[in-house]
DNA-binding XRE family transcriptional regulator
Amino acid sequence: MTEDLNRLKVILAEKKKSNKWLSEQLNIGQATVSKWYTNRSQPSLDMATRIADTLGVSLDELVRRENA
């Protein structure tokens, strides 16, 4: 399955923030955020919650769900 599971790229663009900014806010490596940004890997549920909080969006807005 190649479907994007998170909307991180879209939300960062809407908020006019970069993946570098997010990595600094979360105190994690930019390469890790880049993998999430390109949907090559996914953050844990705990980290997804931190991302959503940092970006001021709900977890539902961050995660793409089928039949939503």
Remarks:
- Residues 8-62 form a domain with the 434 Repressor (Amino-terminal Domain) fold (CATH 1.10.260.40).
